[in-house]
Amino acid sequence: MSLLAAALLVAAPAAPPPLSEADVRKKQAAVASVEARRSDLVSLADQVWAFAETALRETRSAALLADYAEKQGFRVERGVASMPTAFVASYGQGRPVVAVLGEFDALPGLSQKAVPERAVLQAGAPGHGCGHNLFGAASLGAAIAVKELIAAGRLAGTVRFYGTPAEEAVGGKAYMAREGLFRDVDVALAWHPADRTRADMEGGQAIVDAMVEFHGRTAHAAFDPWNGRSALDAAELFTHGVNMMREHVKPTVRMHYVIPDGGDVPNVVPDHAKVWIWARDFERTGVDDLLARLRKVAEGAALMAGVEGKFTVQAGDYEVLVNEAGERLLDGNLRWLGPIAYTPEEDTFARALQKAAGVEATGMDAAIGALEGQEKEGGSTDVGDVSWNVPTLHVSVTTAPHGVPWHAWPVVAAGGMSIGHKGMMLAAKTLAATMVDLFDDPSARAAVRAEFEKKTQGFVYRPFIPDGPPPVPRPE
Ligand SMILES: [Zn+2]
Asked: Is the pLDDT of residue 475 over 90?
């Protein structure tokens, strides 16, 4: 071996040390605990699937999970960070504090039966098009498995389950982070339902969510239009400006908008209009640049149309800060647990979903994806905000067939039947086993921490959320 090769070997990131017998036995106990609770976890996931409650309206979903945690002996604090559906369930005492995040909000308009063709369950109702019904239940299952080891005196420290509402809008975790609820956490873990399984080495996109409002002057659109100043003109000029920007932003940027208000009727010059826009890039700094440019475009649009403009940042997420040391732990546990086995019926279900969605009917893909060589992909999560406050480990687990559109009915369908349940179980076991590593192995914890400290040196957390309380809707 050359000196250079020897030096490279020394410099290479340390692989996790071989597991001790005792560690393996504790992990086996954690996995067995998740398995023993399978019917409860499936029931929790199915109930949340049926409730299908959207951001900050997840009253029954949050209560279901919080009540279950309480029944298992967790201390539950409800209504944290001024959100009635946010809660923290804790068990044990002292350090380390290992947290697992759970989501449970649905998406508007995606109601769908758990069948492999488009079949609305309840017209106009929400549906779990991102699999968050599985997300919350799996994370809670993992927390309970760790709790049982603490209760048996086999692990020492505190395990916490964070019930984090409103991921799809608002960004509940940012409000929880701003409140300092993660301050004493040593490591946080999260997973996400996906069309593939792997420990995530890429952190998605940072995002900002802004509402751009214009206020003009009404007039008769035919008799005296010169007396009017159209807010809709300004909205159109703004979106035109955004579309001109597209050529002059990095290819990593995504900007998408809808026009929730474009006036009332054609014969009245609209005095009100608004554009709701989201802008993303792979890093928060890129989003900050976009935001500054979008503000100017809005100002220019208002100026040209002769109306007043108002630009409000409503929410936003950081990109997830990847912790490679932590991802290696997750990856090791995924491989230790092995891939999901699907039945021929599940494979048939998957192919039908893929066919209906117009993608290649390849069936279920159980493979555990490689840690290296992952590509950057679009999408954002408020887990990002947690990850800049405490070291955060993130894993994706298959809950839907490969290639089907996300935030769409096929994900709702698969998440309400055994394909989703199997993903939930693997996620719970992976998280539980990784938490055992973190509790049991101070050097693993130290490596995760050291990487986090290095990557956040000089960093100051500035959440996008506006000052004041979260926008909790009035009960219907
Ligand atoms: Zn999601």
From this structure: no
